[in-house]
Amino acid sequence: MKVQMLPTTISENGRATAQQHLCCLVVDDKVAIDAGSLAMSATEIQRKQVRDVILTHAHLDHIAGLPIFIDDLFATLETPIRIYALPEVINSLETHVFNWVLYPRVSELKNSYGNVVTYQSIEVESKIKVSHLEFTAINVNHKVPSVGFVFSDGNTKMALSGDTSQMERFWEFVNQEKNLKALFIECAFPNELSDLAEASHHLTPSKLELELKKFSQPDCQIFVINLKPMYREKICSEITTLNIPNLNVLEVGKVYHF
Ligand SMILES: [Zn+2]
Q1: Cα 162 to middle of ligand 1, angstroms
Q2: Long-range pairs for 123-129 at CB < 8 Å and ≥24 separation?
Q3: Looking at residue 101, which CATH number applies to its domain?
Q4: How many angstroms separate the alpha carbon of residue 134 from the centre of ligand 1?
């Protein structure tokens, strides 16, 4: 499986930076997990191939690129963009984003081929087919209805936490899944902002360390994602001091093969 966290942020030289303001993890150039920077940073191949978008939750940094991506492709879509999300997340998108005020209600619009968007509700802990992949959503612990995922192409299996604070059920579920190749887990704030992390339901390196004690797959590679760009260096250095084997910060923009 091929995985890439799309770049989000441009330096004064016009190059993508390591900072990650928005979240969009593309699998096999075909499936987007969240759509933060999907419209802005998808490669030409991804732009042509991504028609399935599965969402962890409705926060803006995870969906910002979705309306623009649909808009960009509108006239050319021969099949609709399929959006998979919790019913609460679909409701948030329809109420707060695609409401004819912030953006047109694209689910009511058609191009010459038909619908441009369809929604599919996710049921927690049920398997769902998304393109060539199989996903299972698991409840996590964020400020709004949110899920993490276990996903597989039939050969390689991975897990992703999405935005979250302390979790129990996620670990129970993930630990039952054998031979996970990679785990992607958030760490939004440095240790000094522990109170803010607690209030906003995010992790710090110290909290991450406690979480990873609940994870029982020592051979799985662990990648930290969703670091608040402002605190990236601090968080990276605190993660290094944890000295946990197989734990690395995911490089934004880099294509990983598993
Ligand atoms: Zn969030």
Answers
A1: 8
A2: 124/86, 125/173, 128/84
A3: 3.60.15.10
A4: 23
Å from CA of 135 to ligand 1 middle: 20
Contacts for 13 with CB less than 8 Å, ≥ 6 apart: none
Structural domain count, the chain: 2
Name the pLDDT band for 208 (thresholds 50, 70, 90).
very high
CA 201 to ligand 1 centroid distance, Å: 8
Q: How far is the CA of 76 from the centre of ligand 1 (A)?
A: 31
**Residue-number span of the structural domain to which 236 is assigned:** 126-250
Mean pLDDT estimate for the chain: 97
Q: Decide if 255 is inside a domain.
A: no
Residues 113 and 14 in one domain: yes
Residue 220 falls within a domain, yes or no? yes
pTM recorded for the entire structure: 0.97
